[in-house]
Input
Amino acid sequence: MKYISLMSACVATLSATLIAAEESEAKDEIATGETVTVTAAPLPKFRVEENEAGSLVPLPPEKVPFVVDTLTEDFIRERNATDLDQLISLQPGIYQGGKTVMARNAGTYTIRGFGGSEVYFGGVPMVGGIATFMDPSLLERIDIVKGPVGGAYGGQANNSLSPMGGVGGAILLTPKRATFTEDFYDFQVKGSYSRASGSRLKFTADVNKVLPGEDFAVRVPVAYEWREPGWAPSDASHGRMTSVAPSLAFRLADRLTLGLDLFYQYNNQPAYQGIRTSYGKPVLTGWDDTYTETGDRMRFQTHGGTLHLEGKVNDNFTLRTTAAFYQTENRWNYRGPASTVRFNPANPATWYEPSAGDHLTRNYYAAQEGIVEFETFGVEHTFLAGVSVTRKEDQGWSWFGSAASKSWTDTAQSKLGLTVQDVMTWKGLSLLAGLRTDWHDSVNHAHAWSYSPRLGISYDIAEAGVAILFANVSLTESPNFNYRKYNTAGEYLTSSWRAVQKEIGLRVNPMDQLWLTATAFRIDQSNAPVLMTNGLGDDYYADEGKSYSRGVEFSASGNLTDRWSLYAAYTYIDYYDKTGSGRFDRFPPHAISLWSSYKIPWLYDAVWGIGGRWRDDWEMTFRGTRAGREYAVRDLLTIDTSLDFPLGENWTLGLALRNLFDTRGVESARNLQAFANDGRTFELSLRWRF
Output
């Protein structure tokens, strides 16, 4: 509670300062009879006007009958996170099991207490876990769709033995794409230092050019980062990551645009797999002690691209075509806590074990969608029909010090999806009804169909856009591939797990550019695989798993005045495992996130930002089950602040202090391998845009 009080005090101080500044400015205007003119960059925007995340067709966010949290380009730049994982961790109710590409479901996030789908990049699912380390400067927007999303993107059958695949939601990344509106050049150099996490030096560039004739545009966002982690051995080579995402756009006709989004990323860094903790503290180590050696490295290289064609056949009919290919080679050689629940406190040598691996993953994707807009008896329809094909391949090996031999992987999985959906609007009432059907084919030649319907409704109470009620119910299912049956040879489960969400919420627009949202939800999962034993030392699975999560969420996003913007969110989650550990805090039951920006009139319109996050106590799990009271994680509060100071028309000097009070704790964990958050970090940046 003391942390909440501290955060509240910071917010109260900020509010008093801003209100006083606004009043002072108003008095100056009255006294002089003149209006202050703002000439610097506009106030950061934390809200979009239209979005198609989850809804599949463009809709104003207030009319979407479910929750979508959008992190705008301004928000991404203001928070200035090192990678996607650090940025996502700022959001309440969203977590992932360890910042590593070695985890079984690396790159996927838990939302509302359940595993989400793989991260989507430009509408295409990413494989290999590399999205965890993606540089946010390459992104135009991040959308977090909450709740089961099978009705929009299909359920995922996973070859790595985990009932994930969209129960909790999906994270959609929109890359920066070429635009025909303007030419610009945007460069930034940033340096940061932390005693705990070491030194970083980062260079980013974002160039957009419209060629003569205005029918061809190219945009090239680039990022390069040099890193020297504070915990790495002194003789270890420094880390480096290069990312580039060129985008080409061709205007083939007035209503037809062809785009090509390319992506390349190379990462080679010192690496580790976490530390041991007990009752929220490191065991005989500091937060940044890792038992790493000079040769412990994490290397991965990703390349690929997406071709998309969109055009209007006529005023009412739109066609969208997508084709994509991505490949990731992931190699690691490092050590972390031994993958066992119990360890011998008297023998530290048994706490850590080496691991190594080399995996090659490929993803092929193609989709065709058609959207028809028409009207019947005063009801406006936006009808969508689509088909998509996905194929994932994973080949390679992995090895743990506690294992007798290497574990080899050679899997392939295909999915054919069919989607039909209609968005109906009449006066203040909007109704979204849809069905997604998927045919799955696994490496073991197991075949299965899955069906994911959904229904959502939103109602503008006064038809004035001031208060909007919304509700939804959805079902997502996907087959339980590769789970061995009891007492059988070569036979596997053939059933499907199912997840049902029921949700109701209210959106309120108390002032012109500010929206408040409150929602209550419950997600029930059934038929999930549960690890069993027959008493003879053999493991098998039964589709008896049942669990649920329920909770509430509150958020505020937008501008309080023309100088003051706000983003705030709170999440409460109650998780219950009906077939295993019962009720326990698998994730922080309470979490708060806050960020506010203010343009200071008496300081040359410099933009000051302040905010933070707080996460409640929670408990680690081992293979999905409760690990024990000694593996509890303590609450964590971090406060950040920044100042962007304009140096003339095109230059901006940035100063930032992350984790102001140097609070340390567990950021994320997988199988008892705890990853610590960064300590107090000083940042200095220089941006040039023209």
